[in-house]
Amino acid sequence: MNEFIRKPRGTKDILPDEQKYWRAIEKAVEKRCLAFDFGKITTPSFESVQLFDRAIGQTTDIVQKEMFEVKRYGTSEEKREEETLVLRPEGTAGVVRVYLEKGMQVWPQPVKLYYIEPMFRYGRPQKGRYREFWQFGFEIIGDKSSQTDIATLMLIWQIFNDLGLNEKDIIIDINSIGCKICRPQINKSLSDYLIKYQKLLCPVCQERLNLNPLRILDCKEKKCQNIIAGAPQIIDYLCESCKSDFKQVLEGLDELAIPYDLNPRLVRGLDYYTKTTFEIRDLQDKTRQSSLGGGGRYDNLIETYGGPSTPAIGFAAGIERIISKIKEKKIKIPEIQKTEIFVIQLGEKAKKIALKLVYDLGNKGFASSCAMGKNSLKSQLRSADKNGAKLALIIGQREALDKSIIIKDLRDSTQESYSMNKLDEMIYKKLRQK
Ligand code: HAM
């Protein structure tokens, strides 16, 4: 047997039957983001490695071991580009780069951008974890008010609700992880506690203890989890301003009746976050290892890149994970309306007329199609039905000779024969008149 070339590990083919889910998500995101005056942005799939090194953090899994390096095929080591390029593992860093590169600081603030793009992480593939996966996400750059945090969460909630996922299925896990002022104190309180258990922590956390103790709270290792359970709570070490802002965010969510779970251990896997951080979680997912989406404030990131101090907040969701949830919950997603009119032809003469008819109907704005081969009436009717057509136009030997046509209304199965020159009038009547 032939050995076919297979798709790379951790990737996914999206076949025609699946497309309706992707389209529904794209439509929901677009509808809500455009209404909220977001502009769409598309950035390159690969960027300079420094962009992610600085943003995501040297001690994160992504930077340490999950980035795909882009090399020019077949070039010798010496001739390689100077700059190391990697496939983007996430979207925020690229958007921030564009904000600075295009001088968006002088645009009316905040700048609101959204994206729907594939991301790449060289992790160990497992359920809901791919090496290439799609995210929709958005970033609001240039506003520090808690109102923006609330608006962000509201937008996320509405998009998920539009897709049929609501308070029965999902919840927002939320926390505040402090700002430049209180973070040193938070880190110190955690280090003081964790240092006592240093030898019992997993090797990765032992390393993190000096570099970034906050990230230890995110460790999934059982032995670290037991130690983390007794760690000081971040919230107790927030400065007054962070505390007051976080209180306002929670009050805003209460007012909108958006459900949330205050999770004092939530820290997220990327280093750029400050203050409000959150994840969207399936209520059934007690392990908290497969979030549907996540985001938060990143008020220091633009400065990290050498820009002016600029507050920002954003969010991204994993599209494959949302689709799998939609299917699991058996949420009905409308089929894509492909064909309005399906032309059925029987015999050689009819076949010639059929293609011309499809061409003319298409030019008049009707989504039309016909069978390509020599199929029976029954199988052509089946195709019409499968394509979601409302009308079938049947041209047999007789119709081809006497210039008539049968219009079969597939919605109520009625059919009648008309002279060809009455066709347009009848079609407009059946499809365009209310
Ligand atoms: P993240 O939490 O790394 O955040 O990813 C966001 C979402 O992408 C996750 O919640 C998950 O649904 C999905 N995801 C992540 N990795 C995978 C994977 N290997 N396979 C399938 N789905 C995955 C970010 O990327 C931030 N840039 C979000 C953000 C935007 N923060 C501020 N602005």
Structural features, described:
This protein has two domains: 16-182 and 238-328, BirA Bifunctional Protein, domain 2; 341-433, 3-Layer(aba) Sandwich (Rossmann fold), CATH 3.40.50. It is built from 15 helices and 16 strands. The protein has helices at 19-35, 49-56, 61-65, 92-101, 146-162, 183-194, 203-211, 222-228, 240-255, 301-304, 319-328, 348-363, 377-386, 397-402, 423-431; strands at residues 39-40, 46-48, 69-70, 85-87, 111-120, 132-141, 170-176, 260-262, 274-282, 293-297, 312-318, 341-345, 368-370, 391-395, 404-409, 414-419. It has an eight-stranded mixed beta sheet, sandwiched between helices. The chain has a five-stranded mixed beta sheet with strand order 13-12-14-15-16, with helices on both faces. Strands 2-4-3 form a three-stranded antiparallel beta sheet. Helix 1 packs antiparallel against helix 5 and helix 5 runs parallel beside helix 9. The model has no long low-confidence stretch (mean pLDDT 93). Histidyl-adenosine monophosphate (HAM) binds at residues 90-92, 121, 123, 128-130, 133, 135, 137, 139, 269-270, 291-296, 298, 314-318, 320-321. The site of histidyl-adenosine monophosphate has 28 residues, from strand 6, strand 10, strand 11 and helix 11.
